Amino acid sequence: AAATIDLDAGGAAALRELLVNTEDLREDGTLVPERLDFFVELANAMHFDLEGSEDYARDVFFLLNDLAKRTDLRVRALVAALKQVAETQRQGLVSALATGVELGSAETALVLRHVQRNDAQPVESLLTPLLAARDADGSLREIPEHRRLARILDRVGQFAAYARKLDLGTREIELAFAEQGLVDKFPEVLELPAGIDGIDAMLPDLDGELILFRGASLWTFAVDSLTPLVVAQPLSLLSPVFAEVAEIDAAYTDAEGDHWIYAAGKIWRREHDDSRWLEVERRLGEVESRFVAPEAIDAAFTDYEGVSYMLVDDQYVRSSDGVNVDAGYPRSLEGHFAAELGFALPAALEGEHLDAVVLDRERRTWLFKGEQAYRSDRLGAAVAVRDRWGLVRNGFATMDQVDAVAEIDGRCCLFVDDQILVHGDSLETPMPRALEGFPKLLERWQPDLPREFSEGIDAGFTDWSGQVHLFCERSFASRREGPWLAEPTVERWGRVRNNLRETGRVDAAFVGLDGRLYLFSGKQYLRYSDPNAEFADEGYPRTIAADWGGLDEVDAAFVLDGRTYLFGSVVEGGAFYLRYSTRDYEVADEGYPQPVDDNWWNLPFALTEAGFARPDAVMSDGEGEVWLFAGDKLVRFDHLHRWWSEPEPISARFEDLPFASVGAAFTDGDGHTWLFAASPDEVRGDYLVARYSDGDFTRIDDRFPKAVRLRWGRIRNNLQDTGLVDAALRLITPVIEDEDDED
């Protein structure tokens, strides 16, 4: 390979020697295993130095990169093959065991996993004693006497019987073990040897022997079979140093394999690679801890098993319940923390303090130190923190327009898609900045916001009471202090008080000098620029008092001799009338409104007595005749000849009219005469309208009469029609105070 960078045999040998000295290659020319991850990553070429051969550093790295990739592929293939063999072996073992305990393979595997939960090599624990008990021909005639194997098989058999009896599936078995702690509750039969009435201490495995201590005597047993080896012998048998000891207080074996005995206020240790028991000085109960009033916690995280860790300087503590620190902690990071993580720390972090530890959703562990981060499945290649972390999805960075702007809690909130950006300062501030923590997902900004609102906001505002309203599609959500309450927008917003639409009653109507139709109902009126239009003009209905010279309601209205007259009542009470001589109806004639007296119409006494002085409706037909309707009668006035007709029944003049009295009437520009009922129809329960197109009123038009509300009173209301809100705001009207007003 060295020939590709133009080296002769001597140069190649020198290069190989150099790489061996730098601990990149081994003597046999293979890569040092610890350097494999480094050379696999091409990005590390920038960090590879070759002292004395700098000109060849990149070329050498690429050679080693090729070697590393081929080695990595072979290692991965070998590991995959071994894993496959191990899995096949495990499945065969589980299948055989499942047959023996009469349980399904999945259920048996689950039971076995819980029974061997503390066993680092569960398959080996089962297979090793079985393989050792085979005959010369490789067959196994009976289960060997092996204490650990027997205990596992006994437990699995009992749990299997329990599962069969209750017909438990995998989910129920998992819950039983997790919730009931069945493994810990498993009873074990203990039978003390003859001549011993208790146990003071025990060493579970000292050179293949289990040792029990009672008083000044000891008993030993074979670890695997518990066959008695030594019975009631003095402690000096273990070592002469125990000759004067009356009893053993405690004994254990630590993680390093060293054995400890506590007795008579003294401590003895036998190291794992020594046969001597030596007395040692040890102050019990004192722990050097960085967690006594630390200035700061360097890192904290919880793994996917629910176990929490905190790191300070070169120590860490563990909490399995999230409240109390586990026994045996704090521990030093060096020598212990890697075992907790389940992988060896990269060389760059050995002996270093960590700044942070994070577990991602793929169950990978990230270790942070300075500006670098290391991932558990690629520990050989550091990642620059700023290239991988701190990147925020920001819909506002590339937006064409905002979806909504709303003032909430005194702050300006901008919405784009499923995100919100909040400004705390004035929008007039040069280069305004959003508050820290934004933009933020709507579901994180308001976790209890209804789900459909977390996908986007169309509009929003805060009303005068402090209640916040947000709009999304055809719904809105409101909240003051409690939870968000959502309901259809049309049930609360865009509802216009429309007396004509609500009641169907028309009190007065006329076609004005401007060609527009005006309909009066209660304290409101509607205007139609085109009398044939389906909808009233935009902005209607409006209140009568605001536009018609102080009248509160209108009882009658008509046009005569180029002037328009409106009769009705004012807010303060009393009958008044207005007169307009202009087409725009902006201002009434000077001196109006004026009160109405009983002789306004200059009626004969008989007509006054008949109620025509205060008629129910007035109509001008455009031909110089004025019609007065009162009760079920009508009279006509010929303006040219100056005479009143005799009263006649309304039904006699207007044939087939379905109602007896008229509340309003008018003649439109097309010559149609419209009559509105003065009271609701007894059958339909609604006010009716009739139309005549012939001048002698002998035939009512087709499809009439009909309910007033089917033809009149409809308005365009996009909010009510669609339920959609594009924008919303609270309008604050300024109040200008007179400087001279001391109040």
Short structural description:
The chain is of the alpha+beta class.
Structure description:
The protein is an alpha+beta fold and about 750 residues long. The protein contains 17 helices and 41 strands. α3 (about 55-100) crosses α4. The mean pLDDT is about 85.
Topology:
Blueprint: H1 9-21, H2 36-40, H3 57-101, H4 105-115, H5 122-132, H6 147-166, H7 170-180, H8 182-185, E1 201-206, E2 209-214, E3 217-222, E4 228-234, E5 250-253, E6 259-263, E7 266-270, E8 278-279, E9 299-302, E10 308-312, E11 315-319, E12 331-332, H9 337-341, E13 356-359, E14 365-369, E15 372-375, E16 378-384, H10 385-388, E17 404-408, E18 411-416, E19 419-423, E20 440-441, H11 442-445, E21 459-462, E22 468-472, E23 475-479, E24 485-488, H12 499-503, E25 508-511, E26 517-521, E27 524-528, E28 542-543, H13 544-547, E29 551-560, E30 563-570, E31 575-580, E32 594-595, H14 605-609, E33 617-620, E34 625-630, E35 633-638, E36 643-644, E37 648-649, H15 650-653, E38 662-667, E39 673-677, E40 688-692, E41 706-707, H16 708-711, H17 718-722
Helix pairs in contact: 3-4, 4-6, 4-7
